[in-house]
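User: Show me a protein chain along with its predicted structure.
Assistant: Here is one chain, sequence first, then structure tokens.
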Amino acid sequence: MALFAVQLSFDESDTERRLQVRPAHREYLTSLKESGKLVAAGPFGDQTGALLVYDVADEAELREILAKDPYTPADVYQIASLKEWQPLFPLGG
């Protein structure tokens, strides 16, 4: 398994549409958290984007997960950064 950090950038000109899709997006993230695929997620304080950390087999699996996120077909974000992450300290500890 590999950890990936994904930084999203929101389309600030279409906040209303993003907020309409957000409940479905968060429900999807909850299911990923429950299945162990999502380690952490949350928006930035200024609401211009979000950071998500996934625990997946590889980048291909991550891209499949992102494709199924309700935010993706709604086209309300762009991937600002997607990188494998190697934390120095264990998560949650």
